Amino acid sequence: MTSILVICTGNICRSPMAEGLLRDALQRRLAEHAPEVSSAGTGGWVGSGAMPESVRAAAELGVDIAGHVARRVTAPMADGSDLLLCMATEHRDAVSEPDRGARAFTLKELVRLLETLPAVSPGAEPGNMRERISAAHLARRQGAVPPSRDDDIADPLGQPMAAYRAIAWEIETWIERLVTGLFGATVDVDVVEGS
């Protein structure tokens, strides 16, 4: 089974929202064939729940992250994931050991790279995710998308509720594009189940 590890700093704001929103988007698109999604932080506030504002912002988008428990990213966690989906370049750089660099991207960076590749045919199987990630890494090495100052999702910690809502909406928008980039514009669940 393929797996995605979403990474931010404390694992209490951005990555819990992104984990919940991505899991929801993948399950809607791929049902039981969806990759496993989890999250962690480079400086994880181990054992803490998600910030109440993150829980509320995610709930307003239809996703329940109330049971989230923060954890710190470990080498085995990162090594066992097919995709290290980072909220900011500092997180990507922190987990990009030489053997992990090909699987570590910021959310926005990966979406931009995937959108330079030929589109996936509808109904692509989840196993093709690894091929898309490899192709995105090759496109990055070839400079298909120049580095952007806008690759980070801002940290809303300490900000008012409106900032959490804005970040949740931004994450949701980029996740929808990510799922399309990895698995195609539409997926007929019956086709996937029949394969």
Helix and strand arrangement:
Blueprint lengths: L2 E6 L5 H17 L5 E6 L10 H9 L14 H5 L3 E4 L2 H7 L8 E3 H8 L14 H13 L19 H23 L5 H6 L1
Parallel strand pairs: 1-2, 1-3, 3-4
Describe the structure in your own words.
A four-stranded parallel beta sheet has the order 2-1-3-4, with helices on both faces. β1 (3-8), α1 (14-30) and β2 (36-41) form a beta-alpha-beta unit. 45% of the residues lie in helices and 10% in strands. The radius of gyration is 16 Å and the shape is globular. 46% of the residues are buried. The longest helix is centred in the last third of the chain and has 23 residues, at 161-183. The chain has eight helices and four strands. The protein is α/β, with parallel strands linked by helices and 195 residues long. α1 runs parallel beside α7, α2 packs across α7 (161-183) and α5 packs parallel to α7 (161-183). Residues 187-195 have low confidence and may be disordered. The protein has one domain (3-189): Response regulator (Rossmann fold, 3-Layer(aba) Sandwich).
Number of domains: 1
**Treating each run of at least 4 consecutive H or I residues as one helix, how many helices?**
8
How far is the N terminus from the C terminus? 16 Å
One letter per element, helices H and strands E, the order comes to: EHEHHEHEHHHH
Poorly predicted runs are: 187-195
Q: Level of helix content?
A: 40-55%
**Approximately what portion of the residues adopt beta-strand conformation?**
5-15%
